[in-house]
Amino acid sequence: MIYFLFNLLNGERGFFSYVKKNKILKNLKIEEKKLIAKIDNFQSKNLLLTDNLDLDYIEFLIRDKFMMGKLNETIYIIDNDKN
Questions:
Q1: Segment 9-63, tens digit of pLDDT
Q2: Considering the entire predicted model, what is its pTM?
Q3: Quick one: which of 53, 77, 57 has its CA closest to 67?
Q4: Positive or negative, the Cα torsion across 5, 8, 11, 17?
Q5: φ/ψ of residue 68, rounded to 5
Q6: Cβ–Cβ under 8 Å, residues 77 and 67
Q7: Helices then strands, each counted (H, E), the chain
Q8: 11, 30, 35, 72 — which has fewest CB within 10 A?
């Protein structure tokens, strides 16, 4: 009887093992959701990289990365980090 009780709680298919495997499963599901979101993000960016250039997206990248503007356009940079 003690043997069965011990295996019920502590065996490889016991209660404690079940709880541990459930915790691992939850963590893996969370990681899967993060990876799926990352893949979706990459796929949406990849769709923009075709032979037909999306000039609006290129303009957005240039403005964002190089902080460049159009002719006679004034660009203001607001720095919120200063207290």
A1: 777 777 888 889 999 999 999 999 999 999 999 988 887 776 777 778 777 787 7
A2: 0.49
A3: 77
A4: negative
A5: -105, 155
A6: yes
A7: 3, 0
A8: 72
